């Protein structure tokens, strides 16, 4: 990985690595390890790569059912370049001019743009000059926090508060206060904005990592900078990115096995020694990378021997789940952008419902991704269009299955909110696919349907995610529940950090033993 790891020129051809899961982190780890001569095999229980970056088919048309906002493309530019490939040749990206369209009712709408001046002007017309100036101060602060934490925290392997202070050279308590870990995102926004709609809009960035703006540190305003730095449309859909990563890994020699569920991580001589699959295959390896949620290890899904390799996330520390509708439907009224947000009018109670009461929100904020639209333009083809509608939901899919009545009532509230804002969606049951927290828990076991690992609540939360080395030698961690956290670019980074740890552990052994197994333990 550029700038952070010494890559050995020694070929590691005798080193076998089993990767458990072909999510974004599993795939980026596979790419980095394969290009350095490791023999990599990925075991993925689903039929396709991508994990949460999955695709569903509705009314015969493929739709993204996971991430839709693609940012920080430079992380992928670097990944491909390091592997001797070109990201821009492999995946066609189109820059978005409209970052997102926001609505509170049929009359109050606000677009944010890639061009900050256009956003400033729009905010000025929407909320007045003072808040437009506040926006400029806010973007400068978000940029400052991002610049401070990018290499020192996000791309560094598991920093501690003390290590972080040293690394960013925090000279005084003021420097630490500048990254605003001790105040909540919601509270901090009143320093920049007086209009409650703008506070709500920028508070929502906490949900990008599955958290409540009322409980997470103001540091998360850096997400606003990430979006301001560029949002791209991926031609062919986000799932295309996962397919491209799998193709690159394969071209470098990795083997991807789909429909291959891992049931146990093997341990021998006090270190991870391979995996066992549902079909009973024993696959010996010198190192194992787990791209499953860390709770799957901690709750014993991969055997008692690895249960203590990582700490368990308490159910109340989990991040948001979601209730989603993938639809192919005609829309009328409100002109959708690719990304549109329809705000509920009781924001605090929305998070209270989810995190404290464990119920679907009475007054949901609704995100709609109109997958056939570029910026604000109508789809090229008239007629039904492809939509993903999402509301936040409690991560309790392992202990509570929402009844059909509860889902239906939330669906009514969701689409009523869209109507209030002027959007009508003509839904057909045959062209609708609903995914609940229980479904997400089934797809991503031991999560309760939490989609972003542990929530980022409290200033210490970022430091409690494990780094890429688990407590068990030979077992490495990668993915949204590992440092630096969830979101496509962060998961990609965690996969790279896991690969870098394996390489470092490998090259740190004596030169005479470099062709021996990782850590010097031979496999039978
Ligand atoms: C609805 C939704 C919307 C989102 N929106 C955005 C967005 O707009 N932008 C953004 O950046 N991020 C977004 N995210 C978050 C982002 O998708 C994730 O943080 C990221 O994709 C997680 O990647 P990961 O590496 O943790 O792997 P995961 O996606 O969690 O994949 C883990 C893989 O491990 C496999 N696995 C688990 N157990 C086993 C087993 N026993 N055997 C074999 N395989 C196994 C799973 O099948 C899965 O493929 C969204 C997520 C969701 C669900």
Question: What are the key terms here?
Answer:
524 residues, alpha/beta, 8-stranded mixed β-sheet, 5-stranded parallel β-sheet, 20 strands, 33% helix, globular, disordered C terminus, binds flavin-adenine dinucleotide
Chart the SSEs and their pairings.
Blueprint: E1 16-20, H1 24-35, E2 39-44, E3 55-58, E4 61-64, H2 73-82, H3 87-90, E5 93-95, E6 98-103, E7 109-113, H4 116-127, H5 129-154, H6 161-167, H7 173-178, H8 185-189, H9 196-203, H10 222-228, E8 232-234, H11 239-251, E9 255-258, E10 262-268, E11 271-277, E12 282-284, E13 287-290, H12 294-298, E14 321-333, E15 339-342, H13 347-356, E16 366-370, E17 385-393, H14 404-420, E18 423-426, E19 432-435, H15 437-443, H16 461-464, E20 475-477, H17 488-507
Parallel strand pairs: 1-2, 1-13, 2-9, 6-15, 13-20
Antiparallel strand pairs: 3-4, 5-8, 6-7, 10-11, 11-12, 14-17, 14-18, 14-19, 15-16, 16-17
The structure holds flavin-adenine dinucleotide (FAD).
Task: Describe the fold and architecture.
The protein is α/β, with parallel strands linked by helices. The protein is 33% helix and 20% strand. The chain has 17 helices and 20 strands. The protein has helices at 24-35, 73-82, 87-90, 116-127, 129-154, 161-167, 173-178, 185-189, 196-203, 222-228, 239-251, 294-298, 347-356, 404-420, 437-443, 461-464, 488-507; strands at residues 16-20, 39-44, 55-58, 61-64, 93-95, 98-103, 109-113, 232-234, 255-258, 262-268, 271-277, 282-284, 287-290, 321-333, 339-342, 366-370, 385-393, 423-426, 432-435, 475-477. Strands 6, 7, 14, 15, 16, 17, 18 and 19 form an eight-stranded mixed β-sheet that branches. Helix 1 (24-35) runs parallel beside helix 17 (488-507) and helix 5 (129-154) crosses helix 10. The chain binds flavin-adenine dinucleotide (FAD).
């Amino acid at each position: 990985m550029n700038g952070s790891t010494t890559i050995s020129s020694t070929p590691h051809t005798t080193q076998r690595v089993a990767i458990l899961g072909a999510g974004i982190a599993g795939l980026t780890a596979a790419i980095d390890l394969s290009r350095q001569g490791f023999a990599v095999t990925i075991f993925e229980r689903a039929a396709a790569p991508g994990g949460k970056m999955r695709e569903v088919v509705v009314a015969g048309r493929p739709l993204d059912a996971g991430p839709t906002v693609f940012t920080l493309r430079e992380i992928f530019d670097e990944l491909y370049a390091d592997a001797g490939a070109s990201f821009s040749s492999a995946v066609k990206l189109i820059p978005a001019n409209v970052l997102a369209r926001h609505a509170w009712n049929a009359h109050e709408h606000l677009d944010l743009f890639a061009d900050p001046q256009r956003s400033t002007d729009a905010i000025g017309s929407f909320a007045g000059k003072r808040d437009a100036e506040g926006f400029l101060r806010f973007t400068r602060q978000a940029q400052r926090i991002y610049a401070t934490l990018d290499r020192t925290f996000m791309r560094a392997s598991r920093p501690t508060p003390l290590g972080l202070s040293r690394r960013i050279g925090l000279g005084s308590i003021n420097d630490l206060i500048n990254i605003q870990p001790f105040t909540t995102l919601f509270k901090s926004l009143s320093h920049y904005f007086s209009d409650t709609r703008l506070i709500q809009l920028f508070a929502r960035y906490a949900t990008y990592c599955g958290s409540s703006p009322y409980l997470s540190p103001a540091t998360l305003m850096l997400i606003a900078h990430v979006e301001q730095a560029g949002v791209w449309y991926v031609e062919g859909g986000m799932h295309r990115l996962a397919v491209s990563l799998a193709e690159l890994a394969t071209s470098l020699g990795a083997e991807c096995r789909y429909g291959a569920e891992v049931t146990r991580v093997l341990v021998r001589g006090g270190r991870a020694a391979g995996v066992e699959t549902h079909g009973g295959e024993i696959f010996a390896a010198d190192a194992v990378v787990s791209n499953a949620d860390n709770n799957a290890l901690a709750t014993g899904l991969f055997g008692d021997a690895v249960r203590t390799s990582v700490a368990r996330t308490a159910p109340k520390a989990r991040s948001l789940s979601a209730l989603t509708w993938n639809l192919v439907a005609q829309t009328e009224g409100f002109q959708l952008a690719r990304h549109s947000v329809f705000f509920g009018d009781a924001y605090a109670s929305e998070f209270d419902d989810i995190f404290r009461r464990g119920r679907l929100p009475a007054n949901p904020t609704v995100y709609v991704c109109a997958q056939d639209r570029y910026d604000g333009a109508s789809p090229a083809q008239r007629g039904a269009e492809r939509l993903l509608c999402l509301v936040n939901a409690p991560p309790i899919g392992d202990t509570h299955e929402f009844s059909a009545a509860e889902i239906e009532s939330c669906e009514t509230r969701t689409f009523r909110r869209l109507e209030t804002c002027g959007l009508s969606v003509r839904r057909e049951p045959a062209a609708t696919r609903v995914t609940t927290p229980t479904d997400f828990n089934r797809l991503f076991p031991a999560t309760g349907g939490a989609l972003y690992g542990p929530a980022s609540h409290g200033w210490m939360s970022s430091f409690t995610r494990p780094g890429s080395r688990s407590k068990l030698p030979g077992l490495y961690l990668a993915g949204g529940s590992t440092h630096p956290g969830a979101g496509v670019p962060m998961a990609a980074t965690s996969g790279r950090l896991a690969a870098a740890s394996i390489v470092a552990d490998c090259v740190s052994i004596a030169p005479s033993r470099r062709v021996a197994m990782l850590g010097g333990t031979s496999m039978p």
